[in-house]
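User: RNA methylase, NOL1/NOP2/sun family. Structure?
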Amino acid sequence: MEPLERYRPIIDDFDAFFEACERPLGNAVRVNTIKASVERTLAALEREDVGYEQADWNPRVLRLETDSPGSTWTSFHGFTHGQEEVSAVPPVVLDPRPGERVWDCCAAPGGKATQIAALMDDEGTVVANDSNLGRISALRFNAERLGATSLAVTNEDARNYSLQRFSFDEFDRALVDAPCTCEGTIRKNPDALDNWSEDAIASVSGIQKGILRRAVQATREGGTVVYSTCTFAPEENEAVVQHAIEEEDCRVVDFDLDMEYAPGLTEWDGQEFDSSLEKAARIYPHHNDTGGFFVAKLEVTA
Ligand SMILES: C[S@@+](CC[C@H](N)C(=O)[O-])C[C@H]1O[C@@H](n2cnc3c(N)ncnc32)[C@H](O)[C@@H]1O
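Assistant: Predicted structure:
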């Protein structure tokens, strides 16, 4: 937990933040509307006597009163998918529409890619890519289990991604749910900080910058790119978005999100960020009793 002390100067109620990080996280699932409506899913949970609470910000996200959310009837039938509540935020901010072409650059094991497909009513194309072959099988399994037929799976390094294989040459939207140091997952995974180091942050920050730049390049003018991580480190968040707006044609834009969060930073450790970074969301564990996340929305410009 010691590494979290570096965030004391930027978190409004650091004691509440720290205390929340020490509390285990409850079990959440997302209703898979490709297979069943929210109403049908809630009725099924009631039939099998599993208690639930719908998240205030999104009725498709349920907090379940069971220790084994993967063993319910609704889960076996693909009506629900185990997904951390806050991890359902980036696809909602991406706001994909039926019929669009969407690139999920870092997609495995597929929680967000299948959520994107559901938000598109499974109409259009979701290219779910991941560079790690070992994680691709979980991605394919989840796509099949949840009935997401609009998903096409690829296994490439997103930094050098080629669209030559496709009949189109740009995407409408892209999600970069980047590899990161995972500080914000401490409630789910108490070992998350065991291998923490500033060198690890610096190293993954370079990879994140490369992936986000490629996502912007591959998205059409006027299209949307969402950048997210489950970490608090500004080097992996604001600094990565700052790099993209300096190097590529894009700008940070506002979004609606009906939950509590802090704005993105405009300064960290002597580095200044563009004031538009305040439009990004820093979701801390004490805000909504969730894990931690960073989300920024970009519009691709000419
Ligand atoms: C935070 S996880 C993604 C979780 C996923 N979006 C979900 O919701 O299930 C980050 C992923 O990035 C992948 N990754 C790491 N470096 C990559 C790269 N250069 N190109 C594409 N994927 C990469 C990792 O294998 C990992 O699966």
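Residues 87, 105-112, 129-132, 135, 157-159, 177, 179, 207, 211 surround S-adenosylmethionine (CB under 6 Å). The mean pLDDT is 97.
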